[in-house]
Design brief:
25 helices; single chain; 25 strands; about 675 residues; about 50% helix; alpha+beta; elongated; seven-stranded mixed sheet; six-stranded antiparallel sheet
Amino acid sequence: MPTLAQVELPVSGMTCAGCVGSVQEELAKTPGVSTATVNLATRTASVQYDENRASIESLIAAVEAAGYSVPAVPQELAEQAETRELRRRLVIGAIFAGPVFVLGMTMRWPWLQLLLTLPVLTFAGRGIFADAAGALRHGRTNMNTLVALGTGAAFAWSLAATVLGIMPVYFEAAAVVIVLVLLGRYLESGGRARASNAIRTLAHLAPPTARVLRGKYEMEVPASDVQIGETLIVRPGERLPVDGVVLDGASEVDESMLTGESVPVLKRAGAQVLGGTLNTTGAFRFTAAKVGRDTVLAQIGELVRQAQSVRAPIARIADVVSGWFTVGVLAIAIVTFAAWLFFAPLQIALLHAVTVLVIACPCAMGLATPVALMAGTGRGAERGILFRGGDTLEAAARIDTVVFDKTGTLTAGHPCVLTFRTLGKWSEEEVLQMAAAVERWSEHPAAKAIVKFAPPSTLEATDFQSIPGQGAEATVNGHHVTVGRAERSIHVEIDSASAGEFTLSGEVRPEARDTLDQLRAMGVDVWMLTGDNAEAAVKVATVLSLPSNRVLSGVLPADKESHVAKLRAAGKRVAMVGDGVNDAPALARADVGIAIGTGTDVAIATGGVILMRADLQGVPEALRLAKRTLHIIRQNLFWAFAYNTVGIPLAALSALSPMFAAAAMALSSLSVVLNSLRLRRA
């Protein structure tokens, strides 16, 4: 059986959708590779491969075979170095291209124009020509192919004309086009950096060192050296290095960067604290519970990275078009050149063909989807909303039906025990202690309420078994104890005999009514499913103004899943919102599973969208953000296609000069990036 591994490789040198296609194709045909997804905006390749048949080295070799490289330094440093090099080439290119442009307008001193143009092509534009040549060696074309052919043809004609002593020459077209292309890429790189700012900020939240209590001594050690179970000390104004549980002391902790919650949260003994959050007022000691890649901060960073690398289905439109685009443009340029030869001199026909090549940049198409996804998922992360991928975000944008679990979702996650009574020979204290011993192993909110209600006990449960939707059972002090759901209560049996009965109640979350009102205002159909009894369900539905035909009670986990499946079969696009183990099947069955981040690990692992804060307002907020991101992607694709649809015919019909075409090409890519960055304020 294959051993599948996942790796994300940084890729240098990609500039357009054609580059993406080349790298992706080369990786996909590497033996052992299961899937390969290349992202132009993040400059990464996400590859799933069989470790027995492929290796990191073979994947890097595939990237290099496509004509690109995998930098040895961290991606952020590689991108910074690439941006600095772009700026250097742009400045030097502009210094020489400026005089060429002025001389070109006066049509004087062609030999001086030639000398000034050479540094622009050989130094500033070296990367463009090298990449185009590399692509041709591998039998491929990309954006650099078009730019290199266009500027190369203009320079070749001008060189021949200068040697032969004839006019006009087009050195200014070759030089200025190169500089404008570099300007567009430089501005685009800055936009990409701003779009990915959220994940970069997350990566730098955790402090590099931790204050650890070892023996009698307080020591400052690298955060990476902290071990689970060690005691750490945190003072006012410091960030927590790892996840843990407060031992003693108290303070308010700012968790806004992880949860989006703007108000600091009071932490006392027993409270969970998260690495990367900011301690504001007091000091406390806590025990390390999760370190390294297991911390919530690290998991959030990984989820955001995955979201930005998993492509949205709408991106396939650009894939299909860009796959044939460059070849089609070359054909149009050849036809343009041949057609103009019938009506004009050779140099005029060549000029129009060059303009077609320059304006037909597929870069905007390649950036249309990934930059918007970067901005949208990054903004979501800042607000405590995590999308697992571009496909999830696109699905969330189309949701028309939202199904809520009740207990722990629409109602408070910690219900209270209202009443308890014994039903058999056992005393109240004995039943409570045995029931609590069983429920300590359960993650269900009702179980936590019973444990909290019962008196302290040293009894331990063994052979614990959870029965989804029905309860749990275990052996306690030699007796078989079952704690399960009855019609309107929680029933306790000891050795198969009735022993006690709990009634519980949970308060409706204060934001639940407004959340449902927002969803209904968006045209979303709202349902409530619960395993609780009909009386409890009706009480909550009344508070939330939910009609009875949108409420199902006494529902087992399998029934929740089947109801979601029925809604989908009826043509509904369904989101399921839940927080418990019993919600996991329905979360997985829905078009989009929305997990409350304060719920169980199973729910979080199953959900496609994760709300890091215990606030239902995140549900409509996530759907609005998804809709806006999809809207921006559609705008980007429209303008990218419209630009080429209008620009290529104008270039072929002599309505544009090569320099104007280059400026328009750069602006088209920049407009896509700037339009996507509007999501940073969503």
